[in-house]
Design a protein that fits this description.
disordered C terminus, Hypothetical upf0131 protein ytfp, about 150 residues, 4 helices, 5 strands
């Protein structure tokens, strides 16, 4: 095999995943924020992360920075696949990151807010409130109401 073909193949192996990541995480073409969602308030927001956003490289790709996280937990829930489920004697370990309005908007894009997830305030084990992404009901995802509810 020619070195040129190897170089082109290697380049494609690098460019294709990067293109997919850009398209799904950052591009304006793959997500349009549903109109029924309220505007994001300016200022700092605490977000509890318990899945892929616990990894600094993922946060860097999504938000443009990894940010600092602090260990956190939510009492009375357990992780069930891609969501949280009530479980009185359990707790979910995760991390809290503080983000600004633009970074929260980017997190909303990553989580497909209003399409796959909703962002709800939940009380952490230490008593503070933080945003948490929760899966939307699958029926609601497949058949959204005309008024957006």
């Amino acid at each position: 095999m020619r070195p040129r073909h190897v170089a082109v193949g290697t380049l494609m192996l690098i460019v294709a995943p990067l293109g997919w990541l850009w398209l799904t995480l950052l591009s304006p073409f793959s997500y349009e924020r549903p109109a029924h969602l309220p505007d994001i308030e300016q200022g700092q927001h605490r977000v509890f992360v318990y899945g892929t956003l616990r990894f600094a490289p993922v946060r860097w790709l999504v938000m443009g920075r990894a940010g600092e996280t602090r260990p956190a937990a939510i009492e009375g829930y357990r992780r069930e696949a891609l969501d949280l489920e009530e479980a009185p004697d359990e707790r979910i370990q995760g991390e809290v990151i503080t983000v600004n309005a633009e970074e929260l908007r980017r997190l909303d894009r990553y989580e497909r807010l209003g399409i796959r997830y909703e962002r709800v305030p939940m009380r952490l084990a230490d008593g503070r409130l933080a945003w948490v992404y929760r899966r939307l009901d699958e029926v609601a995802q497949a058949h959204p109401a005309p008024d957006g509810t």
